[in-house]
Amino acid sequence: AMPGLGVLLLLVHAVASMPQDIYFPGRSAESPYEGDACRITGPPARTGVCRQAAACPTGIAAKGERCEFSGNSAVVCCPPSTDTGSRIMTRIAQQECDRFHGVPTNLKDHVSGNRFRVVRGEFPFVALVRFQGNDDASMRCGASLISPRFLLTAAHCFSEAPPASVTLAALAVDDPEGDTYPVQRVHIHEGYRRRDNDIALLELARDVTFESAIGPVCLNTDTELPLGPTVNLTVMGWGNDAQGEQSKHLYKGTVQSVPTGECAQQFRDVGINNVAVGDNQLCALGAKAGEDFTDACEGDSGGPLVATVRGRPLLVGVVATGVPCGAKIPGIYTRVSQYLDWIEPIVWPNK
Predict the structure, then answer these.
(1) Is 156 among the catalytic positions?
(2) Which long-range CB contacts under 8 A does 261-265 form with residues at least 24 apart?
(3) Which residue of the set 198, 222, 295, 300 is catalytic?
(4) How far apart (Å, rounded) are the C-alpha atoms in residues 200 and 42?
(5) Same domain for 291 and 223?
(6) pLDDT digits over 136-187, tens only?
(7) Which of 7, 107, 111, 215 is most buried, taking the most CB atoms under 10 A from its CB?
């Protein structure tokens, strides 16, 4: 017989008999610790996990329980991207974001309620979509580069003509410094109808070469908007201005998200009942500038709606249902986070 076996069994029995409310020095009994589950108050209320702030996919602390510090590092209650049992996995879209954006950029804050010209390199993911049989680009849409081969845009852009190419790093529709890439294939969401699932992917014939003025945007992987339900967001495009004149330059404007219930009511109040406002959509309206409201205008279809989190642009929406420029009702955007399960297998099939 082994002389140490009895001691070992006694030790195992002693450990198994210990009460569960063990006190750990330096740890509050009320606050969860790194790796523990925590409660996010929402809405919607859900379970998160305590993670170091730098490792949280959204990069922000969610509303809810406070987590303890790990050494000198802040630990936040982080919304899980994908929950597989007790292990929290980061979504493929977030992994790709972290790979391309190791260091957040330093975007300037935007002034609300106005249209401003975009400067080179400010939004390196914005693309101009050109269509077959339309050389003057009077019929055009926007798109967002999300990988070396794919761009995200709106499905309704292609109801009349297929796309021919996309131009990146173009501050104007005729910018000689823009790089043009031919489109090989259009992936339209199989559930698309005019009022819902208005989202599509453009697959290029060759990979885009990233540089200072050309690069992908991160996709929002949380079901909620970063930083809260009512936040300032940036919309951009080559659309029309409030006078209906078509812009030749890339402009940006600040809009504020509107809760979907309130948004739907605003449309009903003005007698518009043929729009979809639900879990698949976001609504946003700009601050009033003179007699008009900043918003996405016709020609900006498919273009990006972004939040800026820690200096990094985050794609939260795609311009879907347009409203007249300067209107007092919100614009409707396709909510990107609702379509990650559709986007990821197409864009990153081997991940």
Answers:
(1) yes
(2) 263/330, 263/332
(3) 198
(4) 30
(5) yes
(6) 555 678 999 999 999 999 999 998 888 999 999 888 777 778 899 999 999 9
(7) 215
